[in-house]
Amino acid sequence: MKRVTIHSDGGCENNPGPGGWGAVLRFGAHVKEINGGAPATTNNRMELQGAIEALRVLKEPCEIEFHTDSQYVKKGISEWIKGWKARGWRTADKQPVKNEDLWRALDAQAAKHKIHWRWVKGHAGNPDNELCDQLATAAIAELKRRFSVRELKDHLAEFQATQSPAPDSRLL
């Protein structure tokens, strides 16, 4: 099984707002940098998307040392997800899991590999973590070049409308 080291990061301007993610994959002397973003999203969604996209790059099962500066991603995938799945994607207090779509995607990608999840302190001089942050920031900058201020506001309004919880029919 190939051994790969991955660092990923995500960020968002104004949270929610335009967001970006970046990842660096290392296998021996090979290095691959990837990034992307969304015109309206949250920091947590970009942290998750960075991890998902990094794992999607791999063409075969690998042993991975996965570094993230997001406790949300690290604890979510290595501690909380088991309970969420057992409870039908509900939290301990019976609320829907936020970002369920991305947690399901990360779970599916992670299942293909043997992953050792590691937390690293962000903005603390770790070269690959800093590079991921730069890649995420570059993705945000690209979105701000591609979309007008009006378009970004429209995307944000649409995103926020989808994030509002549906009324609980038991209360009606």
Describe the protein in words:
- There is one protein chain.
- The protein has a 5-stranded mixed beta sheet.
- The chain is globular, with a radius of gyration of 17 Å.
- It has one domain (2-150): Nucleotidyltransferase, domain 5 (2-Layer Sandwich), CATH 3.30.420.
- By secondary structure, it is an alpha/beta fold.
- The chain contains 5 helices and 5 strands.
- Helix 1 (43-57) packs parallel to helix 3.
Spatial order of the strands in the main sheet? 3-2-1-4-5
Q: How far is the N terminus from the C terminus?
A: 54 Å
Order of helices and strands: EEEHEHHEHH
Poorly predicted regions are none
List the helices and strands and how they pair.
Layout lengths: L1 E11 L4 E11 L2 E12 L1 H15 L4 E7 L2 H16 L13 H11 L3 E6 L7 H20 L2 H15 L9
Parallel strand pairs: 1-4, 4-5
Antiparallel strand pairs: 1-2, 2-3
Care to give the gist of this entry?
The chain is an alpha/beta fold. The chain has five helices and five strands.
What keyword list fits this structure?
27% strand; five-stranded mixed beta sheet; 172 residues
